[in-house]
């Protein structure tokens, strides 16, 4: 298939529905609003109390199906799957989100039932980027609250064929670039001293016994400045993760997995996952602490996973 023939087939998807009369998994609700505001650090009073509204930027959140998707499949169209399959067949097997645009027409309030329609708005000609060559696909979603249009969300991705990785430059025998050094200060010095002794130390408030990580100068539960430490067992599970492909950094060799690990003690920390290929990392995967020496002067706590 020539490039012109492929693009003609891709253009034929423009205007086709990606979802029709689909319904959000949950009504707009205060717990999700609270979680969003806590994650964003947004303390605007408009999002609390009996007259609360949802933050406008949550528009897309109410339409998302989560890891398991929308349970009844209502409103789902095969057009987007067919489009992506066509791009995959053309070698554009990788995907990256590039940008989104939102327009707000009315606020969403707790109790609103969210429905939405989505359409494949545009597919670009083949473009060349630093990541590789491929096509930008824009999907427009019209979001309704109790049947009334509340906003529009445009989401753009790039489906691309990864560019060949450049050959390393420099003379043979050039020293390997160093990983960034951690910033060690009076608040976290004890943590890094523990790492040097192959101990993963968690702060514990001596007033209320709350555990905290990363290390902080005071308790975020009771504000007490007094604390001691407990040593983590090293057992944990992958709570969430991301696979890093871009941007490249000289001391790293992408792709690699970076995970938010939930320790057996209940706190979470970010670290690398070792022992399994990056594409085998999964949420819920059991992991075990180990210490990785990355160069003569730096050793880091990482977590080894197991495909089994």
TL;DR?
The protein has helices at 3-11, 30-40, 79-89, 189-196, and strands at 17-23, 94-104, 114-123, 127-128, 132-145, 148-162, 201-205, 211-212, 227-231, 235-244, 256-263, 268-274, 286-295, 298-305. Strands 1, 2, 3, 4, 5 and 6 form a six-stranded antiparallel β-sheet that branches. A five-stranded mixed barrel has the order 10-11-12-14-13. With 308 residues, it is mainly β.
Describe this entry's structure for a reader.
There is one protein chain. The chain is mainly beta. It folds into three domains: 3-162, Thiol Ester Dehydrase, Chain A; 183-231, no CATH class; 235-308, OB fold (Dihydrolipoamide Acetyltransferase, E2P). It contains four helices and 14 strands. Strands 1, 2, 3, 4, 5 and 6 form a six-stranded antiparallel sheet that branches. Strands 10-11-12-14-13 form a five-stranded mixed β-barrel. The protein is flat and about 60 Å long.
